[in-house]
């Protein structure tokens, strides 16, 4: 037996599922230099426009001058430095929880939290369209793993009846490919009635949601009795890198003692923590970013509905246009690119079979005129796609 990688790659190409990496030659921002051409981009997760903010850049530069570059070691050896510690305190205060623990990526924070809390003999219940890192974490944990119907507290309830051991319910806060919100009031009440804990990964909620940018738990007014384990990532609306888990003193100590993805890795560069301290300040304080974003979301939804595009039930900056067929989604994306716009086509296995889509994301850095440009290009490209394929416009 030998590895037949070329057959595997050819198969993927034939299924219109081959992925390519656009080469970015500018900072994040609405006008991006991609593959040698300037494009108006609607696909970044930099929802508040902080990834290239001058004050955040300066905080990173000053941080590097003061602390050097590398983290140097794991947190438990000699890699836990002043800025990491200060950022953990600030994130605990921001989330209204006793403590927060800093990670280098959201993927690792999720692996860490789930595997430290449940194992053999326990149960982990996840929304079926949770982010891949949460599903991987559930599988890796060795706990009994089951997926409930999307956002369905009744389906969760049925699985809770059969659960044994410590039981953890895990959900995205904002679903990353659909943009809809987890129905946390119902899910948390169901979990609580069975003594289960709830873990929410609010990678896309922190920043855009909540009056102070505190995400979905702030949006719904929930506390640590409802959501015991709260995860946020820093590479999206915060505009920097890394992630955190916030919760009780005992939860954080448990992660420090037992979470292998926390223990066996080098700390993030301290200067990145310096940058995040600055972006946290901007994210909380500059309300106009959220307000402007909300106006753009309404403008986009109105315009897209007028074109006859199929949107999803999303109040967030993630505004997918449902296409269905992967080849058609790719074609629409390339028609937009011909018109100078960059919007990614998201295909299986990232989304369920037959639900390929264009994932439009909006940012506070976009202007209303840029959203108008997107809508004009969409109307035009959509018409062409339907003419080409003979479908009803
Ligand atoms: C992006 C994302 C992650 C991973 O975070 P990284 O810091 O990019 O590793 C985890 N969960 C969700 C829901 C995400 O969207």
TrEMBL record:
Its EC number is 2.3.1.47. One of its GO terms (biological process) is biotin biosynthetic process. Pathway: Cofactor biosynthesis; biotin biosynthesis. One of its GO terms (molecular function) is 8-amino-7-oxononanoate synthase activity. Keywords: Biotin biosynthesis, Pyridoxal phosphate, Transferase. Its cofactor is pyridoxal 5'-phosphate. Pfam families: Aminotran_1_2 (PF00155). It is an enzyme of class 2 (transferase). The keyword Transferase applies. Substrate binds at residues 19, 131, 350. InterPro entries: Aminotrans_II_pyridoxalP_BS, Aminotransferase_I/II_large, AON_synthase_class-II, AONS_Archaea/Proteobacteria, AONS_Proteobacteria, PyrdxlP-dep_Trfase, PyrdxlP-dep_Trfase_major, PyrdxlP-dep_Trfase_small. PROSITE patterns: AA_TRANSFER_CLASS_2. The modification N6-(pyridoxal phosphate)lysine is found at residue 236. It catalyses: 6-carboxyhexanoyl-[ACP] + L-alanine + H(+) = (8S)-8-amino-7-oxononanoate + holo-[ACP] + CO2. Belongs to the class-II pyridoxal-phosphate-dependent aminotransferase family. BioF subfamily. Catalyzes the decarboxylative condensation of pimeloyl-[acyl-carrier protein] and L-alanine to produce 8-amino-7-oxononanoate (AON), [acyl-carrier protein], and carbon dioxide. Homodimer. PANTHER family: 8-AMINO-7-OXONONANOATE SYNTHASE, CLASS II AMINOTRANSFERASE/8-AMINO-7-OXONONANOATE SYNTHASE. This is 8-amino-7-oxononanoate synthase.
């Amino acid at each position: 037996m030998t590895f037949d990688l070329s057959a595997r790659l050819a198969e993927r190409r034939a299924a219109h599922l081959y992925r390519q990496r656009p080469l970015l030659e500018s900072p994040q921002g609405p006008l991006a230099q991609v593959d040698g051409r300037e494009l108006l981009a609607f696909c970044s997760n930099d929802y508040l426009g902080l990834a290239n903010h001058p004050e955040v850049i300066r905080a990173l530069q000053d941080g590097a001058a003061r602390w050097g570059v590398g983290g140097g070691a794991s947190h438990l050896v000699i890699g836990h430095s002043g800025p990491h510690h200060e950022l953990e305190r600030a994130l605990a205060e921001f989330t209204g929880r006793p403590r927060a623990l800093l990670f280098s990526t959201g993927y690792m924070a999720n692996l860490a939290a789930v595997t430290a809390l449940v194992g053999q003999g326990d149960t982990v219940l996840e929304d079926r369209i949770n982010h891949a890192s949460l599903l991987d974490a559930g599988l890796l944990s060795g706990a009994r793993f089951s997926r409930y119907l999307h956002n369905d507290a009744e389906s969760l309830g049925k699985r809770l009846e059969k659960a044994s051991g410590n039981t953890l319910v895990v959900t995205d806060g904002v679903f990353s490919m659909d943009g809809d919100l987890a129905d946390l009031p119902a899910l948390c009440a169901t979990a609580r009635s069975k003594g289960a804990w709830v873990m929410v990964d609010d990678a896309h909620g922190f920043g855009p949601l909540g009056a102070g940018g505190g995400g979905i738990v702030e949006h719904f007014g929930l506390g640590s009795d409802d959501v015991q384990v709260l995860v946020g990532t820093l590479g999206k609306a915060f505009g920097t890198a890394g992630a955190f888990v916030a919760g009780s003193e005992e939860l954080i100590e448990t992660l420090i003692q037992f979470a292998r993805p926390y223990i066996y890795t080098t700390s993030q560069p301290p200067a990145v923590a310096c940058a995040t301290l600055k972006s946290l300040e901007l994210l909380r304080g500059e309300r106009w970013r959220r307000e402007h974003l909300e106006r753009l979301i309404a403008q986009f939804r109105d315009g897209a509905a007028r074109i006859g595009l199929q949107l999803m039930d999303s109040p967030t900056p993630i505004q997918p246009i449902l296409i269905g067929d992967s080849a058609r989604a790719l074609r629409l994306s390339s028609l937009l690119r011909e018109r100078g716009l960059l919007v990614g086509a998201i295909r299986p296995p990232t989304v369920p079979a037959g639900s390929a889509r264009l994932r439009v994301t909006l940012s506070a850095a976009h202007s209303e005129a840029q959203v108008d440009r997107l809508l004009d290009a969409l109307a035009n490209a959509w018409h062409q796609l339907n003419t080409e394929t003979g479908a009803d416009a």
